[in-house]
Amino acid sequence: MKLLVSCIPYDGGKSGISVYVREVVAALEAQGHELSLLKKPDGNPVYSMLWHLFVLPFWIAAHKREFDGFVICAANRRMCAWYPLPTVATVHDLANFHIPGKYSRLRMFYLAYVLPFFAKRAQRLVAVSGATKTDMMRYWRCRDEDVTVLYNGLSGAESIKPAKRRGESILYISRIEHPGKNHLRLIEAYGRLPRNLAEAHPLVVAGADWKDAEVVHEAARKSPNADCIRFIGFVPSDKIEELWQSTGFYVFPSLFEGFGLSLVEAMARGIPCACSDNGALGEIAADVAMTFDPYDTGSIAAALEALLSETAEARTARIEKGLLHAKRFSWADHAAGIAKLIEREIADRKAVSRLFGIPVAKVTEAEAVDRIVDMVKGPRHGKAAFVATLNVDFVSNAVTGWPFSGNDELWGYLRNADFVTADGMPIVLLSRLLGNALPVRVTGADLVPAICRRFAKEGLSVYVLGGERSALEEAFAKMDIAGLKIAGLDPAFVNLDEEQSDIIERINKARPDLLFVALGNPKQEIWMGRNAAKLDVGAMIGIGGTFNFIAGRVKRAPKWVQKCGAEWIYRICQEPGRLWKRYAYGLAKFSWLSLRHLLGGFA
């Protein structure tokens, strides 16, 4: 694939994000992808943020034919206001929610409110650990299904070999940043070690000076073991292996990390480790590293002393565990995961137009019938396939978007439906405005007769739940389809607040291939969603009052009215007293939500 990759920010090559950028770019290139790298603008961070948010999307839109997808390497730092290309964005951590005062007030506001608003609009989000995903769901309100965990990899894994002879120093690699990297508590804990242990195991701190680094240096000068603490500055890549090979132990006391690259790198080199037990560090450490409470100086000191005093047998076991554990982490796997997500998004765009997070299929009526036949004839996977015909009323009832409330349960069922068609010209028109057009409108009123005709030819059966029995009988008589197997007409009253297992039992006893649910939206979709796993049917579809149209009890608008998208006006004229308020509210809400969608307001 031809991929555009945002390498902004790069932090001068001196941070974990810069390591991530280098490794992901190298891994994607090694897998045969053609990359174009965005490496600017440099300079003022505010300018960089605004450029990435509001200028870059226009540039991408003008050049989108040159690329297959877009990769954002640091989505917790830079995002776009909208995404003209299939986009995968990686989030490393949400440390700003865990460490008060980590950044300036302006930057904290940007990270807490501005960034998540735009980040959630990217089509595919990646978290580098389960802890980061949990934070994204908690603080950014991301849905579980919208975030994929792809662990970071191990740099130079193929060439790493544990040292045959190593030193006795305790190493910590991190930019010198206060308070987030927790150098002060580490220095205080190291000062509590017995003098003989400190002299035998000097503390080596590697990393460039960053925010409030002078506070850290001052604390080291005042430590009882100050003469055993060494700051060696930033270590370039051509010198890092020499440092690793001379290290005896590794400590990672950070208050919060989204992953913790250096912890895995230490394990892979056979270095015994101690680290914080919170955030992703506890997750990545598993049962290999000795863990401690990073806010408790006594806990850090106790862990260091225990690690330094382990028996040879216990230390050997810890090293072997670490070597095995480190093999789990691969940059090649991480990059392949990113590429796979982009491929899925490309395929998704070809198959569906995703409106308000709902996957509306790009099908004609005949293709829709084929899809439903395939569903009912195929293997069943423990629940009935969910089919919906999306119109403005569905969107109005389901979708939440300030200042309008919705029904999140219904919205969830629609977002995760197995098959959705566009039953409404406003749905089709919106898809065209969004640049991912649906071919035609496929209405329930047209789809039901087409399904019945095809089912008669295939020898498949249908069951109808809801509606008036007389209307159902009139509709089937009007369709006059010879050979159609009607497994049941069930005008039962359905109460969503009751289980009503007798209804499920009747349907399952009849074992129909397809269940028509004629309860009206939102009732029918909520009932279908709640009972999908209980039903022994191939598929189910909510059809509202379709059988009333087929029976002729409610007259449909002329074809030309339907095609121009004005059927709602015709329906209001038929029943103004009952429908005008519902349609007025629905169209007002749909118009507002559509405007938000056009501005990137829905993923």
Give me the number of helical elements: 25
> Unreliable runs, pLDDT <50, ≥5 residues?
none
For the record, give the distance between the C-alpha atoms at the N and C termini, rounded to a whole number. Answer: 23 Å
Strand elements, count: 20
Give a verbal description of the structure.
This protein has 603 residues and is an alpha/beta fold. It contains 25 helices and 20 strands. The chain has a six-stranded parallel beta sheet with strand order 2-1-3-4-5-6. Helix 4 (130-139) links the parallel strand 5 (124-127) and strand 6. Helix 1 packs across helix 13 and helix 15 (392-398) packs across helix 25 (576-598).
Summarize the structure.
This protein is of the alpha/beta class and 603 residues long.
List the SSEs and their pairings.
Elements (H helix, E strand, L loop, with lengths): L1 E5 L9 H15 L3 E5 L6 H19 L5 E4 L14 E5 L13 H15 L4 E4 L2 H10 L7 E3 L19 E5 L9 H9 L3 H6 L2 E4 L6 H9 L7 E5 L3 H9 L1 E6 L8 H8 L4 E4 L2 H7 L4 E3 L4 H12 L3 H15 L4 H21 E4 L2 E4 L3 H13 L7 E6 L1 H7 L9 H8 L3 E4 L2 H9 L10 H15 L2 E5 L3 H11 L5 E6 L10 H10 L3 E4 L5 H9 L7 E4 L3 H6 L7 H5 L3 H8 L1 H23 L5
Parallel strand pairs: 1-2, 1-3, 3-4, 4-5, 5-6, 7-8, 7-10, 8-9, 10-11, 11-12, 15-16, 15-20, 17-18, 17-19, 19-20
Antiparallel strand pairs: 13-14
